Amino acid sequence: MYDTHLRLDWPWTVSLAGSAMGMIVAVAVLEVGLRFAGELWREQLQRWPTGKRVPPNPAVVFWWYTVVFAHLIGLGTFYTTLDGGLRWAAAKWVYLGYIVPGTALAVARWGQWSLVERLFLRWGWAPVLAVGVPVALPKLLAAGLIVDPWD
After folding, report:
1. Which residues contact 36 (CB under 8 A, 6 or more apart)?
2. pLDDT digits (tens, 9 = 90+) for 60-113
3. Model confidence pLDDT, tens digit, residues 122-131
4. Residues contacting residue 132 through CB under 8 Å, at least 6 positions apart
5. Are 108 and 62 in contact (CB under 8 A)?
6. End-to-end CA distance of the chain
7. 16-69 pLDDT, tens digit each
8. Which of 25, 41, 55, 121 is deepest in the core (most CB within 10 A)?
9. Reduced 3-state DSSP string for the chain
10. 143 and 89 in contact (C-beta within 8 Å)?
């Protein structure tokens, strides 16, 4: 969604709305699929022989890989733009808007998260970066918190 905003009439267009809906649908499908896989795993464990070592839940392992990889790819999108690091600098500032409350939430309520809190911890970074960077970039430049390398 990040690079496409340059070609859209920001902030509200059909293309941007379609991109956002695609992100929401993909997250919903992944979450439902992982919940279903977790149920299948619990059924499998009921038939597991006693005394035999239980391997890790593959749904949980897949979930961790997916979330960590998605974070890296999302941040990497800003890191690899050929703009002299301008959007990467803005992304680092904007990412604080996710990582600070996310860390506080994760520590304060470890393992007792509601569905909304879980979704924020897993996927809240995506809209924060997708919307936050283009909105915050001019404000960060004006405040002098980041410097345009082309000036």
Report:
1. none
2. 888 888 888 988 888 888 888 877 888 889 999 999 999 999 899 889 888 788
3. 888 888 888 8
4. 94, 97
5. no
6. 26
7. 677 778 878 888 888 888 888 888 888 888 888 888 888 888 888 888 888 889
8. 121
9. CCHHHHHCCCCCCHHHHHHHHHHHHHHHHHHHHHHHHHHHHHHHHHCCCCCCCCCCCHHHHHHHHHHHHHHHHHHHHHHCCCCCCHHHHHHHHHHHHHHHHHHHHHHHCCCCCCHHHHHHHHHCHHHHHHHHHHHHHHHHHHHCCCCCCCC
10. no
- Which token pair is 18? 């379609």
Report which residue type is found at 127.
Answer: P
pLDDT of 1 reads: 41
Tokens of 11: 């902030």
Residue type for 9, please?
D
User: What would the two tokens of residue 9 be?
Assistant: 């009439």
Do 65 and 83 contact (CB within 8 A), yes or no?
no
